[in-house]
Amino acid sequence: MKIGITCYPTYGGSGIVATELGLELAHRGHDVHFITYANPIRLGPGSSRIHYHEVEVSSYPLFQYPPYCLALASRMAEVARTYHLDLLHVHYAIPHSIAALLARQMLAAERSLPFITTLHGTDITLVGADPSYFPITRFSIDQSDGVTSISHYLRRHTEEIFHVTRDIRVIHNFVNCHIYHPAPERRREEKVLVHLSNFRPVKRVLDCIRILAAVRREVPARLMMVGDGPERGPAERLTQELGLEPYVDFLGKQDHIERLLPSMHVLLLPSELESFGLAALEAMACGVPPVATRVGGLPELVTHGVDGFLEAPGDTAAQAARVVQLLSDSALYHSVSAAARHTAESRFSTNLIIPQYERYYEEVAARPLASAVS
Ligand code: GMT
Question: Would you list the DSSP string of 266-335?
Answer without folding.
Answer: EEEE--S--SS-HHHHHHHHTT--EEEES-TTHHHH--BTTTBEEE-TT-HHHHHHHHHHHHH-HHHHHH
